[in-house]
Design brief:
Number of helices of chain B: 8
Largest sheet of chain A: 10 strands, mixed
Helix content of chain A: 10-25%
Radius of gyration of chain B: 21 Å
Structural class of chain B: alpha/beta
Largest sheet of chain B: 7 strands, parallel
Number of domains of chain A: 1
Number of strands of chain A: 16
CATH topology of chain A: Rossmann fold
Shape of chain B: elongated
Number of domains of chain B: 2
Oligomer: heterodimer
Chain lengths: ~270, ~325
């Protein structure tokens, strides 16, 4: 099975409260870049689907990662290559040339060339929080989608049974490949992903795998190609324009109460919510 | 701007209450609007939304649209939008709305603005406000295409109240089927059984963190029952298996804004705060006085939750 995983780098989400706004513009200078956590889960999922969990060094399929951005975003691709992806593509384009829709249309052109069986996406990037590229891409391709996947079971790599995390419960879908899948948090739980190669009883360690030093060195030699955005889509008009950014209004400072009776008294007489 | 199309969400033969958030949006922009109710039984369910001032209710009553499968529903939404000349299509940003709206936008060649927290109609031009970076900043944006698709955050668009009147109900046929739909089949929905209100609609939410451990339910349930509250959880509590995933509140779980949010044993990671900091009154109980949750709490109590929570339940019973 061949899997394409789009990756985005984001300002370190654990420092998101340090995002600054200056004259209506977002300032991300000084913030550390990290791969979007959901995209890391997508890479982990792709690796699990293309291996026998008991012998994860042997890749039994192909995992191709792709990102959009300047030369400096190649770090994001190299880190995915170090964990086991086979090949990387950087679509050269600057952030202000991109929105979710252009990314989806460019990915469509790339999918037409690469012909993966599955495109695995993170369900959202934790900077824009848009949650849209997988669905847009699926529509542009005319493929089925399974969004917010918490579990995936391969049926002989011809179809996937996907457990989707939805409001108030979960939904199970079967998608016949090729398809687009977007992954949610719990896809990296020990038994969330069942490849056709892995024993049903196999349990992965919780979370994503880390690259060994040797693998990081070896990743430098793995193929990394470059494509121009304009070669993938001729229509480069943005559908959405952001005019300004602002910080949220600060919550007014609260008080500490000393006891449970005082808390109840305040909620009744001051906040009037009980 | 001519016309807004509100997409209703159906569940078990009824219109979900979350739909009223999208209706609120339609009223705020002030243009005439219609409501499309897609799904089997929608002809009957349409009666639930005739009192909200819509020009008409369009019922696409067909078993093909069951379970809200995006590949099945999106073609009909797009077709109705196109045929009716609607230039704004809005859905509440529930898991259904987030799943289907981008497909509709792609079909219509429309710009899609996800999960907005506010809208302004500036002389016919719509300007949207939406949270980014886990709610640590807000972006203001507009759409450059003639048709605009929007999903609205339920916690920021309160449920529209009925205004009376009776919008006429019309039947609409389903659109030609997408080939993509033939490659997806709905197998099952496992709904969490709960007598409690939905997280998106609850007036009070009692939410717990990993610190509750195996006593998550034994401590929180009596308090929640007493307050008629929904139960929420932090990601850490869900990951540890103390709470089920659909209870997760945060950037990637449910985004809520109840009248009262009681955070118990929740430290207050950015990702959690993103899902609840619009709550009207926030109470935090935590034994760590430096927990970040206290920075957003209106009332903080530094205490051991294993004694404070039963005490709170007992005090409220008085």
């Amino acid at each position: 099975m061949k899997i394409l995983v789009p990756l985005k780098r984001v300002a370190d989400p654990d420092n998101a409260n340090k995002v600054k706004v200056n004259a209506g513009k977002l300032e991300t200078t000084g913030l550390e870049w990290k791969p979007n956590p959901f995209d890391e889960y997508a890479v982990e999922t792709a690796l699990r689907l293309t291996e026998n969990g008991a012998n994860p060094k042997a890749r039994l399929g192909e995992v191709v990662v792709v990102t959009f951005g300047g030369k400096d975003t190649e770090t994001t691709l190299r880190s995915a290559l170090a964990t086991g992806a086979d090949r990387a593509i950087r679509v050269d384009g600057a952030d202000d040339q991109l929105d979710g829709d252009i990314v989806a249309r460019a990915l469509k052109a790339l999918v037409d060339k690469e012909k993966p069986d599955v495109v695995l996406c993170g369900k959202q990037a934790v900077d824009g929080d848009s949650n849209q590229v997988a669905q847009l891409l699926a529509e542009y391709l005319g493929w089925p989608q399974a969004t917010f996947a918490g579990t995936i079971k391969s049926e002989d790599d011809k179809a996937l049974v996907v457990g989707r995390e939805v409001d108030g419960g979960s939904i199970h879908l079967r998608v016949t490949l090729p398809a687009v899948v977007s992954v949610d948090l719990r896809i990296v739980a020990p038994k969330s992903v069942k490849s056709k190669h892995t024993a049903d009883s196999h349990a992965y360690p919780e979370g994503v795998r880390f690259a060994a030093l040797m693998a990081i060195m070896a990743a430098k030699k793995k193929p990394l190609g470059e494509v121009k955005l304009a070669d993938l889509t001729s229509d480069t008009a943005l559908k959405i324009t952001y005019t300004s950014f602002e910080l949220p209004p600060a919550r007014k400072a609260g008080i500490k109460v000393k006891s449970v009776p005082e808390l109840v008294e305040k909620l009744k007489s001051e906040a009037k919510v009980l | 701007m001519a016309n807004t199309l509100v997409i209703a969400e159906m569940h078990e033969g009824k219109v979900r209450k979350s739909t009223q958030s999208a209706i609120n949006f339609a009223r705020q922009i002030g243009a005439p609007f219609s409501i499309l109710v897609p799904g089997p039984g929608s002809k009957a369910a349409a009666a639930e939304v005739t009192g909200f001032g819509a020009q008409k209710i369009l019922a696409a009553d067909d078993a093909y649209l069951a379970n809200g499968v995006a590949e099945c529903v999106a073609p009909t939404i797009a077709e109705v939008a196109k045929n009716g000349g609607y230039d704004v299509v809005v859905v509440t940003a529930s898991s259904f709305g987030k799943d289907v709206a981008p497909r509709v936008a792609a079909k219509l060649g429309a710009g899609y603005v996800p999960d907005i927290s506010g809208v302004k109609n500036e002389g016919g031009k719509l300007s949207f406000r939406r949270p980014v970076f886990a709610g640590n900043a807000y972006g203001n944006c507009h759409v450059n295409t003639p048709v605009q698709v929007v999903s609205v955050r339920q916690s920021e668009f309160s449920a529209a109240e009925p205004t009376g009147g009776a919008s006429p109900i019309e039947s609409v046929p389903i659109a030609a089927k997408d080939p993509a739909a033939e490659r997806v089949s709905f197998l099952s929905m496992e709904a969490a059984k709960s007598e409690r209100p939905d997280l998106g609609e609850a007036r009070v939410i009692v939410s717990g963190g990993r610190a509750l451990k195996e006593q998550f339910s034994t401590l929180l349930d009596p308090l929640a029952n007493l307050l008629g509250a929904a139960v929420g959880a932090s990601r850490a509590a869900c990951d540890a298996g103390y709470a089920t995933p659909e209870l997760q509140v945060g950037q990637t779980g449910r985004v809520v804004a109840p009248q009262l949010y009681i955070a118990i044993g929740i430290s207050g990671a950015i990702q959690h705060l993103a899902g609840m900091k619009s709550s009207k009154v926030i109470v935090a109980i935590n034994k760590d006085p430096d927990a970040p949750i206290f920075q957003v709490a209106d009332y903080g109590l530094v205490a051991d939750l294993f004694t404070a929570v039963p005490e709170l339940t007992a005090e409220l019973k008085k």
